Structures are given as structure tokens and as C-alpha cells.
Amino acid sequence: MLRLSWAGFRERWPLFLGALVTTCLGVALVQSSLLLLLAVAGLRPAPGASALEAMSVAAARETGVALMGVTLGFGAFLAVFVIASTFAFTVAQRRRDLALLRLVGGSRRQLRRVLTGEAVLLGTVGGMPAGLGVLAAQTRMLRDLGFVPADFAAPVLPWVFAASLGSGVALAVAGVLVAARRAAAVRPLEALRENGSAARVMTRGRWWLFAVSAAGAVALVVLAPVGGAAGGQAMAISVSVCASLAFTAACPVLLPALARALPARGVLARLAAANLRDGVRRSTSIAAPVIVLTGLVLGQATAMASFADAGQRQTARDTVADFVVAGPVAAGVPGVAAASTETEVPVVLTVGTGDLAYTETRTALLVDPVAYERVHPASGSLAALRGRVAVAGPGGDDVAAGDAIGIRFGDVDLGRLPVVAEVPAGAGGGPALLLPRGLLPADLLAGASERTFVTVAPTADRTEVAARLGTVLPVAEWLARNAAVQNSTTDGVLLVVMGLGGLFAAIGVVNSVVIATGERRREFAAARVTGLTRRQVLRAALLESAAVTAAGLVLGLLAAAGTLLATLAATAAVTGSATAVVPWTLVLGVVAGAGVLTGMSTLPAAWSATRTRPVTLLAARD
């Protein structure tokens, strides 16, 4: 069976080229992300570092580990998705060959073994060590985004590259399992005649995937308003994931329907529309990565931008202050009605007890409760914030009044402190806890981020008060800058996800277009002998590609619209005002990029497929 797999792999290598590139990239990402994950997890503060520096390193370590975990998981998922769609398409293109193999005595089990053997060969070739280049690029990205120190470098561990062979085979085999099972289940005569189950594109598995994914998307939209700030954002982002999978599964039904809705004026346009309706497998393989790219990238970007804007608006609405001063403000400054000095520090929190306890690095805010209430009246009463207690902050979704939270800052272990109150959750996050000033030794807080919100007395002159305070920022300007800083980590994660999604989607689109167009030589030849010129055939192929891309973009935008709907509901529940920010520049970039990508892939492939004289192709026999 392995010899037969090798013969098929060698003879049909153009069909496997895209899957091979995807496997190589997936393995390289696994190698690089695993090396960086181990290196980031081993980050430790320098000897003699202060408590604040040690806590900052701990926070960077947790952020870096989370980012590399997302990269590792998302890269593996996209690699399997593209490989699976490629294998499903290549198996459909070879169904006559596979049917002949069955007719000469091959069993279903042997057919599955042949296809799995091809996947093993693909994974073996694609699993060669290729992660050093990706490692350098990812390391530079982590430094530029501020996730790791400027001198950070990941050591090269030989065993990681040895494991790459296994990861390459695992990615390829995981991608081929469904296609191999379906190919083995088709009766050989049906495959030769292209009827029965061989002609059915919308399989039972696709219907199940559509039903489960669509139900999940609807459930997430309904539950997002009750998920709180963090939970609502996570569920809103996940809506586009479920909706993208649902639309991808239902492509064989949705694409012909959308094709009928597209304008088809002229012979070439009608020919392109007919080809789109007839070549459902081909159209589905091209549209699927476009749907996933559009849905994931635009859905995530919309949710993050909307929640950030909602958080900024909520903070501005709930903050009664005129200026923000970097550092403390001396008591008794004329014209100052209220001044709340707030010191932000990273702390290690232990939440829960027993087997359910977990530890993570979060942000705490040291405040004076009376002054904080005056500047942030929406926080409610903080009269109980006295002594060794804590209050759940706007970013403390997993902390509630009545809990006992373990708190550690550097070598100072405060033990378990009771949570005596809760501040309303903020859409933009914020500190997980509020602690009373004086709870931590002042000498350990040197260099911590500290600001003072100042409210000017109604009878005082704002300009004179600002001159007495020194360097000040209007509250609106400070809030905008602070939101940009808080969103830098989120933007970095989004950049990673968009980059991965765009790269894998590009590979999937190019591969599907090249395979589909290369197998249409006789079809193009038949069109030319009926009177179409070569240029007209190329134009028809481009129109068909544009129609498939447009349909994929429409479905992807609908998937992202599900996230937008959940975001509106979640922000309204958290802040009292529905907020939506659509990144139109990114939307236009994705639409234009998808169109250019498919067009630039279709034209060379169609030109190559029409080089041979039509009579020569039509006279050939299989």
C-alpha cells in the first residue's frame, strides 16, 4: 500500500503542492511557537531586581505564554483545516481513479490505507525542520510588541526539531481522515458514473457540522449579554468562528443560491454563473478559506474595537474629573475640589480554593476610598475598603464579594484577604482589585505607575489650577492614551491571528484555484472549439473566480455580522449603551485582498491550462 501511495503522490504531486506548503508552514509554526513557549515560560527577573520589576516580568511571562499558546493552537487548527479541504478536493478530482482501484479488487480498508499513506508521505516531507526562519520572525515580533525584553532570545532545543516529524505527520493525517473515510464509502460504479453518493456534495457530515455550528453561533449571541465584560467579549468573538464553520459546511447549498442572485449579463457572465452552479466542489474549495479569513479576522477586529471603545466611553462617563497628573498631588492646592491618587501594580492572585484554585498575575489599584468615590461615583460605596481587605475592580470578572483572595507582591505575601465589595464591571477591563493605600510598603512601590485625578472647584479658574499642578492632561486626552496602552496587548494578539489567518487562507485559495483550473483543460478546450477565443475563456474564468470570491466574502461578512450583533448586546448589558465600531479600513483591505488574490491565482493557472491546442486535448483519451 505504501508503494501505491508513493506512486500516487509522485504522479499527482501538483495536487499536493498546496497541502505540502501548508504542512511545512504548520510544522514551522509548531516548532517556533513551542521553542518560544518554553523560553517565555522560563523568563525570570534578573538577580537583585526590585519587587516591581519581578512582578512585571511575571506579567510579561504570562502574557507571552498565552500568546504563544494561541499561536500554537490556531496555527495547528488552520493547518488541519487547509489540509483537510485540499485533500477533500483532490480526492474528489481522483474519484474515477479510486473507483478503478476498487473495481480491480481493492477493499475500502485498502483504499483508506492508500490515502492515509499519501498523508504520511506528505507529513514526512513537510515535517522537515523549517522553523528557524519563523522563530526569528516571531521573536522579533514579540520584542517589537513589547511582550518580551529587548534582549530576549529563545534557545534552540534539538528535541523540538526531532518532534517536528511527528507533528507534520499528525497534521497531514488529521486533515485526510474525513476525506479518506468518505472516499472509501462511495461505491465504485457510482464514482465512475458520477451519480448517487459520488455526486452528492452536501453530505450528512456537512449537515451535522452546519447544524451544530449554527446552533452554537445562535446560543453565543443569546448568552453574550449575560457573560459579563470578559465573558461577553469572548462569546462575541466566538460567534464568528461558529458562523464561519456553519457557512463553510453549507457552501454546496449556499453558493448556487448566491450565484443565481449575481447579475449575469452577456454570454461570458452567464457561462461563469453556470460553471459556478455546476462546479460546486470547485467553488466550495475556493470559497471556504475566504469565508474563514473574512469571518475570523473581521469578527475579532470588530469585537475588540467595539469593547475598547465601549470601555473608554464608560470610563469617561463615570469619571468626574478635569485633569490627570502623573504622580501624587500635594494636599491643599488652591482650587482643587477632589484629588484621587491611584497606584497601579501587578500582583499575583490566587482565586478559589482546593483543586479549583488557580494563580495568575493581574493588576491591582491602590486607592484612597473616599477620594476614589468622589472621582468615580459610579463605583458605589467603598466605605468597607479599610485595613486588610480588597474590592473587586472593573476587570475582576472572576472575583466577587464574599470571596477570599490570595495576594502576593514580590516577596510580600498578604495572605488571603476578604473581598468586601464590587465595582461595576468595565467593558474595557481594568484592574482586577482595588486595595487600600498603605497596604503595601511604600519603598516597594518606587517606579510604579501612579496618577492623580483632579476635580477643579466650581469657583476656581481651570487655567490657574492647571498652572499650579504643573504638567497636566485633560481627562479625555488621558483616557484616549490609556485606552491605546491597554489595547496594545490585544492588538498584538489580533495581529498574530490576522497574520496567521491571512497566510493560511491565501495558501488555501491559491492551492484550490490552481488545482481546479489545472483540471479544466478539456472543459476550456470544448469552450474554445464552440467559438470562444482564448481571451474570452480567460475572462470567463476570471468572472467565475470573482463570483466565487464575492460569494465567500458575503458569507464571511455575515459571519462577522453575527459577532457584531453579539457585541451590541454585550456592550449594552455591561455599559448600558450598545456600542459598535466597524474597522472599515480592514474590511476594505480584506475584500480587496481576497479579490486580488483569487484573480492573480486564476489568470496564470487558466493561461497555462489553455496553452495546448483544443483539438489536441479533445482528441486525447483517458
What's the total helix number? 20
Please report the distance between the alpha carbons of the first and last residues. Answer: 24 Å
Output the strand order for the largest sheet: 2-3-7-4-6-5
Q: Mean pLDDT, as a whole number?
A: 80
Approximate shape: elongated
β-strand amount = 5-15%
Q: What proportion of the residues is helical, as a percent range?
A: 55-70%
Provide the low-confidence segments as ranges.
195-199
- Summarize the helix and strand pattern as letters: HHHHHHHHHHHHHEEEHEEEEEHEHHHHH
Number-wise, the strands total: 9
Structural class of the helix and strand makeup? Answer: alpha+beta
Radius of gyration: 29 Å
Major beta sheet, specifics? 6 strands, mixed, barrel
Features:
single chain; 622 residues; alpha+beta; six-stranded mixed beta barrel; 20 helices; elongated
